[in-house]
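Dear support,

We are seeing what looks like truncated structure output for some complexes. This example has two components. We would appreciate it if you could run it in full and send us the complete token output so we can diff it against ours.
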Amino acid sequence: MIAPADQTLAAYDSKVEGNVIFTKLDAAINWMRKNSMWPMPMGLACCAIEMMAAACSRYDLSRFGAEVMRFSPRQADVMIVAGTVTYKMALAVKRVWDQMPAPKWCIAMGACASSGGMYRSYAVLQGIDQLIPVDVYISGCPPRPEALLEGLMRLQQKIETEHSFVEQKKELIAELTA
Amino acid sequence: MNAAQMTSALKQKFGSAVLKTKEFRGEHTLVVTLEGAKPLLKYCRDELAFDYLVDVSSLDYMGKEPRFEMVYELYGYGHHQHLRVRAAVAEDVEVPTVSDLWPTADWHEREVYDMMGIKFSGHPDLRRILMWEGYPYFPLRKDFPLEGKPSDMPDIGFTKVAPMADGPFVTSPGVGDTVTREPRSRRPVE
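Here is the complete output from our reference environment:
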């Protein structure tokens, strides 16, 4: 049995101290994942300007390992939907999301991406969660860079609690236990 | 020649095609017949040096006849004068394009077509410009609800009805003062 990830403890072995760390596979995988999230910047409106500010030196996303903005969805694992998703853009966002390899996460940045925001209108999708699963919603119009950093840290906390190995490598586990 | 003089000159030249002239705070407007609009606009460009078409827009007077109205905003870089030309358009009547006079009218007329459903005869490329090809409605018409109508084109686009009541950005009109109208006042602070 694999213990839940949040109950995992690391321990040093006195004989090989400094060279070997005992931990749970889930904890190790999650630790690696959460400290190296590669964002897909889906910048659609003014929120994208704040996202750019968050990536620049003053706020510095790289302190959280998320500085590698990838403009190819195939190289990204967290999509930051920053801005108003119009219906004309909606299926393009979905298509980019579908091209991202799993495991992947989604941050809905700002009021528009979360709920349509002030655009109660025929032209705007009322929240990107109608099309793709959202892990973290960030309030604000637009949110300040600090809010994006907070959202990113919340996502890191969420990734920490995932049963990443059991849930995502089911076939491998079935093969090993057969 | 300033805009007022141009207006009277146009009225003299085109006579019965000019139905009305209007002046409001230095803005001069000519209301013309649809048939007379294009020759008049051509004359404005060629003889009166209106070399810049600022905007082409349209209005929907639902319930009135004729229903629509085209509005052309003209400007001349040489003489710095503004002129507005308006022409009423009945439903299902095609408006002659002015994209051969000012190339910028190409996209403006596409927008009018997309939003209002007015068709332009002689337009080189009359497609929708904001919504996608195949979207079934004209959203700026008065009989189109603000919240939209559902539509679906697989793999291209879909629309749903937006919720108009409640939500974080909806105020309560007619209730108390501006503070109690604010959306946040309806939500108890924890």
